[in-house]
Amino acid sequence: MADLRSNWRVVLLVVMLSLSAIVLFVPSATLSEGEVTGPTNLQYGLELNGGTRIRTPVTGMSATQLDVQRADDDVVRNVSESLGVPSLDVAVRDCTASNVDCRTEEGHVVEVFNDSVTAEQLVDVLRAQGIARIDGSQVTTEHVRDDPSPETYARMASSIQSKLDATGLSGGTATVASAANGQRYVVVEAPNREPEALVELLDERGLVQLTVRYPGNESMQEDVLVDANGIRTVDPPRRSEAGSGWEVPVKLTEQGGTRFQNILNSVGFTSDRNYQSCPANATATRTRNDDGYCLLTVVNGDVKGAFSMDGRLAQTIRSEQFANDPRFFFTAGNQSEAQRIQTNIEAGALPAPLDLDQRQTFTLEGALADQFKLNALITAIVAVLAVSFTVYIRYGNATVAAPMVVTALSEVALLLGFASIVGLPLDLSHIAGFIAVIGTGVDDLIIIADEVMAEKVSSQRVFQSRFRKAFWVIGAAAATTIVAMSPLAVLSLGDLRGFAIITILGVLIGVLVTRPAYGDILRALVTGDK
Amino acid sequence: MSKFEVPEVDYERYSNRQLAAIPLVLLAVALVVLAALWVTTGTPVPLGIDFTGGTELTVQTDTPRGELAAAFDVQPANIQAAAGTAEPQYIVTFADTGDSTNGSILAEQARANLEPTCSDVEECAVVQSRQSTTPRFASSAQNTALVGITIAFAGMSVLAFALFRSFVPSVAIVISAFSDIAIPLAIMGLVGINLSLGTVAALLMLIGYSVDSDILLNNHILRREGGFYESTARAMRTGVTMTLTSLSAMAVMAVTAWLFGIELMASIGIVLVLGLATDLLNTYMLNLSLLRWYKLGEVGN
Predict the structure, then answer these.
(1) pTM of the full predicted structure?
(2) Chain A contacts of B129, Cβ < 8 Å?
């Protein structure tokens, strides 16, 4: 027992190494739910697995710290009408509410997601609406940021995430990152996807509506019948029974069904065989009809389908029985369009458009990724061999050098165990971090070895005092490395974040666990004390 | 197996001024080089596409290297062959053209005009990887890198003062670390190694490595009993071993990664090799002379 107690550091290291081995190699012994490939539980990032990553800002601006007394809906309607933009392009956020991040916790933020609007125009409209700052002063262009609020970024990320999930894209993720200057980005990653396909998915707001277009008093009128809010469930696309097109079946909510029924009846769609009056040229070309009554599938303002309704359904609607079983469908020209409509209904429209002109794209073929994985491993092994060789010829003594190399490698093993248990996807930057950890680790072990073996160690007490002295230097060096790396771990400088996080963790594991254990091992070897 | 011994330097033969002269002159030359590059090219170090914007394609093709440029409408800024791969691969870099679809267009041109290495395109895609950065990203990355290095350096300096609580030894650490970064930067500028995210990581690692050996030296001289030269010799035995071990690992890593075409690891390796070599000079000439002046006063020659 005394052995165990005096060598507790070694015992701790062995226990932690065994745990690492378990989480690395025993199937499903990990806390994360990500996809695992290969013989270990490690997950790999895009740079080692292939795929596409797009980083992009969100289009829009935000006027901050406003004093908004009226209902949000009211403000959105008035501001969007004054600016001449769709109401979807204006948002009001209450910063005092919990879970809403607007950089401050005071007042409201009014945001406009439309490039055609200038900061001056927004300021003019806010003043005209009688909206002032919380301190009572007038709004000026100084208070308008050229970027939407953090809240919008967060909503964008979760909305894109649902869009990725709805396309059945396994492993796709959307997150928010921010740079040192406060600029935020949406980061979208998708394995096994070409960038063009991903951009296509992100390039549209995904606002799907069913409208009715009919002759009004003097000109054609168009009213929204159904949008994503009025839909309860959506089914996969099927071929339409009538024509050559495709349709996406949906079940409306009770409220949505009633609204659908009321509007169709009030505009006269269901009477006088108007339900069959959609002109053939509109149906064939999928454009807005110039006469007659048509139902239109509208995606992001573009008509994807123009169609009539059969008499039986029109009869049901006229007799106000439709809301009892509100099933309907959206039509589309082809299967891929229909699928996109299904996706967009499931995920809902994006809160704001992405500023894809400013995007940063990274894409990597799986084959090259596999090559990187193997080559990075070989590179790391060769670097370790170089370290082993150098310390061996320096000390000319395998009993000092071998435990040194083993200890340095065990730091990497612990880090891999950590990566595996939290499901950290490994990239090239993490591997560079492992190399940095081995580098600083061996430095520290050399300090310990030299200190301990400087003169003949006669007793454990002498050993302890030497070891403590060595540890002052190691602790100081570790502190500087952590300080030097911490800005990178916090700032999102792309690839460097992983590097910094691994280096900091490695230094911590090293100073707290592995490097002290090396001291114990060396003591046993040098003093002959067991 | 013969073991190598760190040679003991007879410091008593040299005055502080002589010792400090070489690293200080090198630092001055490095600063002049950086300033000159700044004036002539606009940046002290050539910036990679991470910081300027642009597109980088990794193509795998049987088209000879000399004919690669003709495949694109835009003249590539640089074409680099990746060694150590079964099929011929090239890294082709383009400067930013201010067009966000540029990356897609260039990839399209590569697929259309370059010869694939096998008949089934599914098996051997011509465009193996692609990275496009727009100027807005690039300038924000520049900004972040600068802030990162500044904070890291400032944090290190504060820590150095906190550890030794006296002016000269702390300043010696800070000057050494500064020079450890400045000299590799100047060499990068001269030989044309681009500043990328990888090299920024390496510069930050240098702050850590550089401080290691300086703290060791200061600790032995200031906090241990024993004469100045005896302490120096002990610190050097350990410190030089540390630096040489790291140096050998990084040199091997740089060469292997370069052969395999793993840019990120290769550039980290090269910058660290340069920086660690500089660190030997700075620690055992500049830092040492400052410490000796602090401990013993002026030493006659």
Answers:
(1) 0.76
(2) 362-365, 368
